Amino acid sequence: MDYFEQFYSDLKFTEKRDANLTSEQQIDRILRPGSTYLNLNPFEVLQLEPESNVEEARKKYKKLSLLIHPDKNPDNRERAERAFDALKKALSLLEDPDEVARCREMYEEAKARLAVQISEKKRKLRKEGKPDTVEEDTPSGYARALWVTVTKCFADREKKRKMLEERANDEKRRLAEAVQTASEKRQLEEEYRKNYEESRDERRGSWREFMKKKEKKLEKFRGANFKPPPPKLESSKEITKNKPQI
């Protein structure tokens, strides 16, 4: 039996042991520290092997839901609701064939990662002249290391998903801002053209009014209508003032 097979043998033992957990203990298990990443693995939430099929997942879901359903835990309803939500999400993932395939790929990736890590640790020990025995050489040590590595694989996938989602959202915001800017520019141009057209008649009217006033002034100096201004008579004071001195 290789280490990976031993891991699943230990997992079956754990499942049998956990089958006797109380409602509160199951809620604690699902909401334990690190559950944000641990619960990314639906097999972990439902305590199933990666080879489990959808019928086994539904059967296990039904069994666990009877324990942690909020109605069954009125004194611990808030935590029960959170645990029950995690349970429902796990089942929905395992009912999706594509998601099941991706989850199983995480286990294969974890085995490959762990093999490299073990090989590197042994190589380093040999280089230092030490025995190349490592903790992962024992079934329990390997099972623990594999469990940690599987969790890391799921966490890495989630981080990558969030990064891509954030990048896509940033691109959407950038495009939306560009569209908004272009729309505002078109609106300003349209308002300018509209105001220009509306003020054209006003400008023409002002020009016509100006020309009419100018024409009236010119009429005073044209044809028969022109009358020279009357001569201005000098007063006696002005005559005396302008009289040459002898």
From TrEMBL:
It holds the Pfam family DnaJ. It comes from the Eukaryota. InterPro entries: DnaJ_domain (IPR001623), DNAJC8 (IPR042858), J_dom_sf (IPR036869). Residues 167-176, 183-222, 234-246 have a biased composition (Basic and acidic residues). Gene3D superfamilies: DnaJ domain (1.10.287.110). GO terms for cellular component: nucleus. Residues 41-111 form the J domain. SMART domains: DnaJ (SM00271). Residues 167-246 are annotated as: Disordered. This is J domain-containing protein.
